[in-house]
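Appendix B, record 7
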Amino acid sequence: MNARHHHAVYVISVFAEIAGVHPQTLRNYERSGLLRPQRTSGGSRRFSDADLAALRRIQELTNDGVNLEGVKRIMALEAEVARLRDEVAALNDEVRASVAATHRHYRRDLVPVSNTIAIFLDAQRRGRGNPGGAT
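C-alpha cells (predicted):
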C-alpha cells in the first residue's frame, strides 16, 4: 500500500458522506474496534483511504448477514492471512537466494563430468589407473 492509502485526511462528516453512512455508525465501528481512525492533537478523528477500504469490507460482510463480532474476527483473520502470505513470500525469496548461492558455490567447486571422464580414461590408457581393482 502506498503512503497516501494510510494518510488520514478525512474528517468524520466528510468520510461518512463519502462512505454513505451516518457518523454515528463510524463511531460505533470505532468503539467495536473495526475502524481505527487516527486522531489529531485535539482529538478529532481523521480517516484514510485504508479506513475506507476497511469500511467497504465491513459493509460487505454485514450485508451478507455477519454480525459485528463476526466481522471483527473475519477481518482479523484476513489481516493475519495477508501477513502470513507476505511472510511466506519473503521466506520463499530467501530460500531461492540461498539455493542460488549454493548452486553458484557448487559450480565453482565441481569439475565437469566430461573432463573427469577424459582424465580417468587418459590415466587408464597410460596404465596408471586400476579401475577394476585387479592387476
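Remarks on this record: DSSP finds six helices and two strands in the chain. Residues 111 and 119 are 11 Å apart (CA to CA).
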